[in-house]
Amino acid sequence: MASAIALHGLWDSLSGFAGSNGLLIFVLVVILLALSFYVVTRAFKWSVPREREFMREVMAPEVAGGAITQEELDTLSGDRKARKAYRKAGHGHANRQRRRHLLDAAHDLADELARSGGQETPRVSHARTEVARVRGGSG
């Protein structure tokens, strides 16, 4: 948050730093854009592993309870390549679509579990039933 405030302050101050020198304003804009890109990528690299850890912690009881498989948990807490590989492991278009919808339903279940603090609520129960429905089970 502090970096966003600082970058915004620098952006607003560009003309004050450069005066009426157009070339200097251009150079400062390029530097500020590069700095902004660096800050965003560092924040992303810092936060994504933690988010994946949280996903594992939230969904581990669901693997133990049989709502999702270990493979699905690995995919949910994995990167883009893991999700793509999981979807492509399905044979035929319908199976690949089902696997994509299954990941979406499992992600919705994770959202509901996180929102409820791990408590069993009607929304969590519905999300769990939806995972079973997409998988082809009775729920």
Notes on the protein architecture:
The protein is mostly helical and 139 residues long. 82% of the residues lie in helices and 0% in strands. The radius of gyration is 22 Å and the shape is elongated. The two termini are 42 Å apart. 14% of the residues are buried. The mean pLDDT is 89.
Question: Which spans of ≥5 residues are poorly predicted at pLDDT below 50?
Answer: none
User: Percent of residues in beta strands?
Assistant: under 5%
- The ordered string of helix (H) and strand (E) elements is HHHHHHH
Major sheet details: none
Shape: elongated
Helix tally equals 7
Number of strands: 0
Helix content: over 70%
Radius of gyration based on Cα positions: 22 Å
Structural class computed from helices and strand pairing: mainly alpha
Cα-to-Cα separation, first versus last residue: 42 Å
Mean pLDDT: 89
List keywords for this structure.
about 140 residues, mainly alpha, 7 helices
List the helices and strands and how they pair.
Blueprint: H1 2-12, H2 14-18, H3 22-65, H4 70-76, H5 80-88, H6 93-116, H7 122-135
